[in-house]
Design a protein that fits this description.
- Helix content is 10%, strand content 44%.
- It has seven helices and 54 strands.
- The strands form nine sheets. It has a 21-stranded parallel sheet that branches.
- A hairpin with a 2-residue loop joins β28 (457-464) and β29 (467-473).
- The N and C termini lie far apart (108 Å).
C-alpha cells in the first residue's frame, strides 16, 4: 500500500481501466496512507536539501538554489513569514515566494477566558490557511453552551459540532483533549464529550420540513404544466413554449433558432394593452424596434409574429432604426404604418431594410404621416424611397492597385456586400476645362462648356492634375468648393485650360474583413486617405401582400416632391416577392441604384410621375446595376414604364452613375403610359412587355451626352413587345445599332428581294445603300444573300438610314479586293 499513487487512489473504476467493474469509491484508509507518504516524502526532501531557515531574512539572502527549489522557514518572529517557499529564477538571481503553510498539526493552548469564551495561543504559529490543518486542543474549563475561541488575540470564532450546530453543555471538558478542524467560518469539534441529540434531531427535522415544503411547491408547479409525451423520435429534442403560448412542445435543437415570438411575449403589459386597444396613441414601434435589435443578437433566425398589431399606427421611428443586420423573420398583418418622411422633421425618414431581414406582410400598408413636399430623409439624400434599404457609411484609406482598405468602422461590412468609395475613379470621358487660373486656396472657380447634362450637382468630385476637389457645381459651371485636396490629395495651383475630370465612386464587393482591414474584389484605381465609403445591405427579403402608397397624384396643386415607393442603393442578393402594390409617387415606383443580383417581383405599379415635367418611371434601374431582374404584373398611369439608365442630367451624391449590365425588366400588362421604355448606357439588357399601351413605344439613345466611359457604348439591348397599342414606335440614335433592337410581335414582318448592283469590295469592307421600298425609318432589318457569294464576302449588318433606304455593310475576309460582286439580297423588315 506504501507504493500507492494518486492515480491509484482516485481511479475511475474498481478495476483500473475496466468500466464494467463499476465506479470506484476512494478508500479513506488508502487516502490516509497516500497522504502520510506524501508528508514523509516532503519532510525527507527538506532533510535531504537542508533548506530550512530560522527566519525569512535568512532565506531571501540565499539565491544560490535553482528555479523551483523548495525551502521552509520556521521560527520567524512574524508568524505569517513561516511556511514553505519556492525559488523563482535561476541560480544566483530571482526571489523566494511563499506557497503554503508548514506541514503538520497545530496545538491550541487555552490561556484564559471562560468555558464559553476561550482565549488561546497556538504552537508553532497561527497558520494563514487554517482549513489545511487539524488542531489539538485541551480546554481548561467546561462549556455551558455556545462556544467561541480567540487565537493569538484575534477576533472570536465559533466552535460548533460536526453538524454545524452550536455546542451542547459539557461538549468541552477541562483537561480532555479534543480534535478540531476548520470549516468555512468556524472550528468544527469532531468528537464532543457530550452529544446534543435534541439539537441534532431538530436540525434533521428542520431539513426534512424544508424538503417537504420544496416537494409540495414543485408538485403544485408541475400540476399546471402540460408536457408532451416522449415518443419515438423524441431523442435529442428540447422543450419550448409553442407559438400560441398555450403549451410546451418538443422541437429539434436545430429548430430552436427558428422559434417564434408573439407581441404579447415581447412587449410590456402597457404596450400590449395598447396593441389590443385600437384607439391607442402610444408609440408601439419604438419598443418593437428595441426587441428586433435584441433578438437579432440573441436568437438569429427567429420569427417575430406582429400580426396582432392592427389598425393605423404612427411610427415615431423606423422599425429597424439603428440596425444594420437582422437575421429576423418579421410578420406583420393588416396594419397601416404611417411615418413622417419629410426632411427637416425630427425622427423623419424611410423604413430601411437591414441585411438578412425577411419582412413578410399580410395586408400591411405603408403611407407617409404627412404629405411629402420635397425629398424623403435618407443617408446623404441619395435614395428617396419610402421602403428603403439599409446603407452604412464610414471612412477608409487605400493604396493604388491593391485590394486592401483600412476602415474606421469594420463592424458595418458584411462579406459579399457591395460598397462605393467616393471620389477615387476619374472618368476621362466626362471632362471640362478650367476657365481661368486658380491657386491652392481658391474656394470658387468656373469650368468651360455646358455642364448642365454632365457634372452639375450638389456633391461632385473632380480631379484637376493630381488634386481631387469636392464641391457643388451649378448648371452654368461655377464650382463652389467644399474641400480642396480631398481624399488625401494636396491642394495646388492649376492653370487655365487644364482638364477637370468628373471623379465618381469606385464600386466593388467585400471579400473578407479581418480587424480593420477590408479586402475587396477589385484592385483600387487610386490612392486615397479618409475617403467616404458607403456600404450596402445584403440578402434582405420582402414577401406577402402589401401596399406602399406615397399618396401623390399628378395635379397642379401638388408640391414639386421627389421620392419613390420602394428602392435600394448598393444592395446585393435581395429579393421582393408576393403581391405588392406600389403607387402614388412623383419619381419612381421602384428604383434600383447600383444593386447586384437583386430579384424583384411586384403585382402592380400605378400613378407614377409628373407629366408636366416629363419625369418619373414605374421601374427605374439606374447606375451600375448588374444582373438586377424586375418583374411587374400590371402597370398603369406612369410617365415612363421601364427605364434602364446610366446617368441623369446631374451628377448624383454618391457618384454611382455608370452603365448597367445584364439587367432585365418584364411587365406583363402596361397601360396609359406616356413612354413605354427608355434605355441608355446599358449593355446586354432586356425589357419585355406582354402588352403595352403608350403614346410612344420607347427610346434607345445615348441620352444627350449623359453616358459615362465604362460600357459607354450601348449595345445588345433588346426590347420585346408581344402586343401593343402605341401611338408611335421606337426611336433613338442607338436603335438598330450594335445589337440594339425592338421586336414588336404585333407587327408582322415583310420580305423584299432587292438586286445588289455590281460592287467592288475592298479588304476593309464597304457600306452600300440600297433602295428597299416600304422600310420605315425605325424598322428592324435582317439581310441575307440570295446568291452564292464569292469566297470571303459576308454581311456584317443592315440598318435603315432613312425611309425606304437600307445601309448594308459588306465584309471581305479573302485577303484581297473582290470586284464586281452582284446578285439579290433578301430583306426581312419589321416596321415599328
Amino acid at each position: 500500500m506504501s507504493n500507492l499513487t494518486a492515480a491509484d487512489v482516485w481511479r475511475d473504476y474498481s478495476v483500473n481501466g475496466v468500466p464494467a467493474s463499476g465506479a470506484h469509491k476512494p478508500n479513506k484508509r488508502e487516502i490516509r496512507a497516500w497522504g502520510a507518504k506524501l508528508q514523509d516524502d516532503i519532510a525527507a526532501g527538506f532533510a535531504a536539501t537542508g533548506l530550512s531557515y530560522a527566519s525569512r531574512a535568512a532565506l531571501v539572502a540565499n539565491l544560490i538554489p535553482v528555479a523551483n527549489s523548495l525551502a521552509q522557514v520556521r521560527g520567524d518572529d512574524t508568524a505569517a513569514y513561516n511556511g514553505i517557499y519556492k525559488k523563482v529564477g535561476a541560480s544566483g538571481t530571482g526571489s523566494w515566494t511563499r506557497i503554503a503553510d508548514l506541514p503538520g498539526d497545530y496545538v491550541l493552548i487555552a490561556t484564559g477566558g471562560s468555558g464559553n469564551a476561550i482565549e488561546a495561543t497556538i504552537i508553532p504559529n497561527l497558520p494563514t490557511t487554517p482549513g489545511q490543518h487539524t488542531y489539538i486542543f485541551a480546554p481548561i474549563s467546561p462549556n455551558t453552551g455556545a462556544v467561541t475561541i480567540s487565537v493569538e488575540g484575534g477576533d472570536p470564532v465559533a466552535i460548533k459540532s460536526a453538524f454545524g450546530t452550536e455546542l451542547a453543555e459539557n461538549s468541552l471538558l477541562a483537561g480532555m483533549t479534543q480534535l478540531l478542524v476548520w470549516s468555512v467560518d468556524h472550528y468544527a469539534l469532531l468528537m464532543p464529550a457530550a452529544v446534543d441529540a435534541d439539537s441534532i434531531l431538530a436540525t434533521v427535522v428542520a431539513a426534512k420540513d424544508d424538503a417537504e415544503t420544496a416537494k409540495s411547491a414543485a408538485e403544485a408547479a408541475a400540476s399546471g404544466v402540460s408536457l408532451p409525451s416522449i415518443v419515438a423520435g423524441s431523442a435529442g429534442k428540447v422543450l419550448q413554449v409553442n407559438a400560441g403560448e398555450t403549451a410546451h412542445e418538443l422541437v429539434a435543437v436545430a429548430d430552436v433558432a427558428a422559434r417564434t415570438f408573439g407581441l404579447k411575449a415581447l412587449l410590456s403589459a402597457a404596450d400590449w394593452a395598447d396593441v389590443r386597444d385600437a384607439t391607442n396613441v402610444r408609440d408601439i414601434i419604438s419598443p418593437l424596434n428595441a426587441k428586433i435589435a435584441e433578438l437579432a443578437g440573441t436568437y438569429p433566425g427567429c420569427t417575430i409574429d406582429a400580426r396582432a398589431l392592427r389598425g393605423e399606427v404612427e411610427a415615431e421611428i423606423d422599425l429597424f432604426d439603428g440596425i444594420s443586420a437582422a437575421n429576423i423573420h418579421l410578420i406583420t398583418g393588416a396594419v397601416t404604418l404611417r411615418k413622417e418622411m419629410n426632411i427637416g422633421v425630427a425622427g423623419a425618414g424611410a423604413f430601411r431594410r437591414p441585411s438578412y431581414l425577411h419582412w413578410e406582410m399580410h395586408g400591411t400598408i405603408i403611407k407617409p404621416l404627412t404629405e411629402i413636399t420635397g425629398n424623403i430623409v435618407s443617408p446623404n439624400d441619395t435614395e428617396k424611397a419610402m421602403l428603403s434599404s439599409w446603407l452604412g457609411q464610414t471612412t477608409g484609406t487605400g493604396v493604388y492597385n491593391t485590394t486592401s482598405v483600412t476602415v474606421d468602422d469594420p463592424s458595418i461590412f458584411e462579406i459579399g456586400a457591395r460598397i462605393a468609395i467616393e471620389g477615387v475613379y476619374p472618368d476621362s470621358s466626362v471632362a471640362h476645362n478650367l476657365s481661368g487660373n486658380i491657386d491652392a486656396s481658391a474656394s470658387s472657380f468656373s469650368l468651360s462648356g455646358d455642364v448642365s447634362h454632365t457634372i452639375h450637382g450638389g456633391h461632385v468630385y473632380i480631379q484637376i492634375d493630381n488634386e481631387t476637389i469636392l464641391g457643388a457645381i451649378s448648371t452654368d459651371g461655377v464650382v463652389t468648393v467644399a474641400q480642396r485636396g480631398a481624399n488625401g490629395t494636396t491642394a495646388a495651383s492649376h492653370t487655365s485650360g487644364t482638364p477637370a475630370y468628373w471623379t465618381n465612386s469606385f464600386v466593388t464587393t467585400v471579400v473578407s474583413v479581418i480587424g480593420s482591414v477590408v479586402t475587396v474584389a477589385n484592385a483600387l484605381p487610386n490612392h486615397f486617405t479618409d475617403a467616404v465609403i458607403h456600404v450596402g445591405a445584403i440578402g434582405h427579403k420582402v414577401s406577402g401582400e402589401y401596399i406602399i402608397d406615397g399618396e401623390f397624384y399628378d395635379d397642379s396643386g401638388r408640391p414639386n416632391a421627389f421620392y419613390q415607393c420602394m428602392g435600394s442603393v448598393l444592395s446585393t442578393d435581395c429579393t421582393v416577392s408576393g403581391r405588392g402594390i406600389l403607387r402614388g409617387a412623383p419619381f419612381a415606383g421602384l428604383f434600383e441604384y447600383a444593386s447586384l443580383r437583386n430579384k424583384i417581383i411586384v403585382d402592380e405599379i400605378s400613378s407614377i410621375g409628373r407629366t408636366s415635367a416629363s419625369l418619373g418611371g414605374g421601374i427605374w434601374v439606374f447606375g451600375q446595376n448588374f444582373r438586377t431582374d424586375v418583374r411587374c404584373r400590371r402597370m398603369q398611369s406612369a410617365v415612363n414604364g421601364a427605364i434602364i439608365d446610366n446617368k441623369s442630367e446631374s451628377a448624383g451624391l454618391f457618384g454611382l452613375e455608370r452603365p448597367n449590365n445584364q439587367c432585365s425588366i418584364e411587365i406583363d400588362h402596361a397601360t396609359n403610359l406616356a413612354t413605354g421604355f427608355s434605355i441608355s448606357g446599358s449593355r446586354d439588357s432586356r425589357i419585355r412587355f406582354g402588352f403595352l399601351s403608350a403614346d410612344v413605344a420607347g427610346i434607345i439613345a445615348n441620352n444627350e451626352g449623359q453616358t459615362t466611359s465604362s460600357l459607354s457604348d450601348i449595345r445588345n439591348n433588346v426590347v420585346t413587345i408581344e402586343s401593343d397599342d402605341c401611338g408611335t414606335g421606337s426611336s433613338g440614335d442607338a436603335l438598330n445599332k450594335d445589337g440594339n433592337r425592338v421586336i414588336r410581335g404585333s407587327l408582322a414582318p415583310f420580305f423584299s428581294s432587292i438586286a445588289m448592283p455590281s460592287t467592288n469590295i475592298p479588304t476593309t469592307g464597304i457600306d452600300v445603300n440600297l433602295d428597299v421600298p416600304g422600310a420605315a425609318s425605325n424598322a428592324f432589318v435582317e439581310a441575307n444573300f440570295q446568291f452564292t457569294p464569292t469566297g470571303g464576302i459576308g454581311i456584317a449588318y443592315a440598318r435603315v438610314t432613312a425611309a425606304n433606304t437600307v445601309k448594308v455593310y459588306f465584309t471581305n475576309s479573302s485577303g484581297s479586293p473582290v470586284n464586281g460582286v452582284s446578285g439579290n439580297i433578301l430583306f426581312k423588315i419589321t416596321n415599328r
